[in-house]
Write a structure and sequence with these properties.
Structural class: alpha/beta
CATH topology of the largest domain: TIM Barrel
CATH superfamily of the largest domain: Glycosidases
CATH architecture of the largest domain: Alpha-Beta Barrel
Radius of gyration: 28 Å
Number of domains: 2
CATH class of the largest domain: Alpha Beta
Mean pLDDT: 90
Shape: globular
Strand content: 5-15%
Number of strands: 13
Largest sheet: 9 strands, parallel
Low-confidence stretches: 1-8, 10-44
Helix content: 40-55%
Number of helices: 18
Length: 531
């Protein structure tokens, strides 16, 4: 056996222990630093509220479709739904507000219970100043009108009656919704300061004070129920002078659909005052309609605005999806009593926009801006099983320049025929695609493309009818073309119903089809002098 020196052995052992501890200390320190960094990114870059806004003003989803939609959003990582029930909510003491598509209270409670099982918060959105046509159309609320004929807004000077109304509506919503938030609307109040009483207040105190006094009363009602008020930010940003008088619990939602940052006003100024902000991009908004969707703008909106919202320390993000502009046309009786109202602008149903919802979900999970074209190609391959060449065809359809939109505004063309020829090439390639899976979803895009061609065909007839050289002798030719368009519409209408059946109510599908070809019928009746 070898002899050992105990002194040397002890020193060696102590040195070894020191080195081991040093390595462990360094490793622990690095790990702690990494943990802090990860935690920092988690707390500052991720949104606490990852939400989606459902607009049920028109295109009312069936209860089954609502639950399935919520489940899919949950799988995509969403934790919040903002429900703009409008006339579909069954108010107990204000029955006149509810429309023909209103849900039962049992259906509302069942849906919210379903969402809560998914850990998804359901925030009710109740408009309280503008966009209240569905309330003011009823004679019960006539005294609240800001204007006799433009019933989009109530008068903020009718303080006591407004307070009584919304106290009851909020109390009712609180009975079915367990969220700690109530969204109180407050956007696009175009008639602010319009009536004589409001003009007098504005002359003395300014528009900001008029707006804030009303919204503060509304916010206080929400707070009295133990909840936090959420409101659209556009008007307070435009008239910020009295903003400090609003409760600090108020959360502002900066809706930005592709325009410059601080489009409505100075957001950092309100943040410095202690107000919390959420952001809101869009997947369906003006000028989208049945025939044109500005896909490029919506993808770009996600690419640019979501990273900005992170950097601006917004605490939440809510994707909006508008079935209509919320502007209405009316059939009036004497004294401007409303016989009926119809929405201005309709979009294709939400069932056809899963790709934009999926890209939104991906953008929320990514610390870098989403790359739209790369996302679309991958989506086409993974979702539909398309090969690289077919994925490019699908991408070409989405990113084709929408002929009826330039710089975000609808345009007119003197050469509709060339527009049809150009777009037909894209449409023809798209309709030939044969997906390996999720065929129904791809069929929505094919129908969208066919609806656009159908619309352009009608526009071509309309353009000829309005041309300087049109003669009455040419009428039979145009009638024949319109008859062909109406015959094609029957096929398109059936496809529309088959694709959206169960997602929307049957009667509304029929109504949407009728509205979509109404202009064709009107022109034909004029041409044949139908009496």
């Amino acid at each position: 056996m070898f002899k050992t020196n105990k002194k040397i052995d002890t020193r060696f052992f102590l040195t070894f222990l020191f080195l081991i501890n040093l390595v462990l200390f360094k490793t622990t320190t690095v790990s702690a630093q990494q943990a802090v960094k990860i935690d920092f990114l988690k707390n500052t870059k991720n949104f606490k509220v990852k939400g989606f806004h459902l607009d049920l003003r028109i295109q009312v989803m069936t209860p089954k479709a609502l639950k399935e939609f919520a489940s899919e959003l949950s799988k995509m990582g969403m934790n919040t739904l903002v429900l703009e029930w409008e006339g579909t909510y069954p108010f107990e003491n204000h029955v006149a507000i509810s429309n023909r598509y209103s849900y039962t209270r049992a259906e509302i409670k069942d849906f919210i219970a379903h969402c809560e099982k998914l850990d998804m918060d359901v925030i009710p959105l109740q408009q309280t100043l503008g966009h209240v046509e569905y309330i003011l159309r009823n004679t019960r609320y006539s005294n609240l009108k800001e204007d006799r004929k433009d019933i989009s807004q109530l008068c903020p000077m009718e303080v006591e009656d407004n307070k009584e109304l919304f106290a009851e509506l909020f109390r009712d919503l609180s009975e079915t919704h367990n969220s700690k938030y109530i969204h109180i609307g407050g956007d696009e109040t175009y008639l602010l300061g319009h009536c004589d009483k409001c003009k007098q207040k504005v002359a003395k105190e300014g528009k900001s004070k008029l707006f804030v006094d009303h919204m503060k009363m509304i916010a206080d009602l929400v707070i009295s129920l133990g909840k936090k008020p959420v409101m659209w930010a556009d008007i307070i940003l435009k008239y910020p002078e009295a903003a400090s008088e609003l409760p600090k619990e108020t959360i502002f939602v900066d809706w930005n659909y592709g325009w410059k940052i601080n489009h409505f006003g100075d957001i950092p100024n309100l943040q410095k005052q202690g107000f919390t902000f959420w952001g809101a991009p869009a997947i369906r908004c003006h000028p989208d309609n049945w025939y044109v969707t500005d896909w490029t703008t919506h993808f770009k909106n996600q690419k640019e605005f979501i990273p900005y919202a992170r950097e601006a320390n917004y605490q939440g993000i809510v994707m909006t999806s508008w079935s209509t502009t919320g502007v209405y046309g009316f059939t009036w009786d004497v004294n401007y009593d409303v016989i009926d109202m119809v929405q201005v602008r309709n979009t294709y149903p939400l069932a056809g926009f899963r790709i934009l919802i999926a890209s939104y979900a991906a953008a929320l999970e990514s610390k870098t801006p989403i790359k739209p074209k790369e996302f679309v190609l991958e989506y086409a391959k993974n979702r539909f099983g398309l090969n690289s060449n077919d994925a490019q065809i699908f991408s070409k359809f989405l990113f084709a320049s929408p002929e009826l939109i330039k710089n975000g505004k609808p345009t007119k063309s003197d050469n509709i025929k060339s527009m049809i020829l150009d777009y037909c090439k894209i449409r023809d390639e798209l309709v030939k695609l044969k997906p390996k899976r999720n065929e129904k979803e791809l069929n929505h895009f094919k129908l969208m493309a066919d609806l656009r061609i159908h619309y352009l065909d009608f526009r071509a007839v309309e353009s000829q009818y309005n041309s300087v050289g049109f003669k009455i002798s040419q009428t039979p030719i145009l009638v024949e073309r319109l008859d062909a368009i109406l015959k094609e519409a029957e096929v398109l209408n059936m496809r529309f119903i088959n694709l959206n059946k169960g997602f929307l109510y049957d009667s509304e599908l029929e109504e949407q089809n009728e509205l979509r070809v109404q202009a064709v019928h009107v022109l034909r009746d004029r041409l044949v002098k139908l009496k």
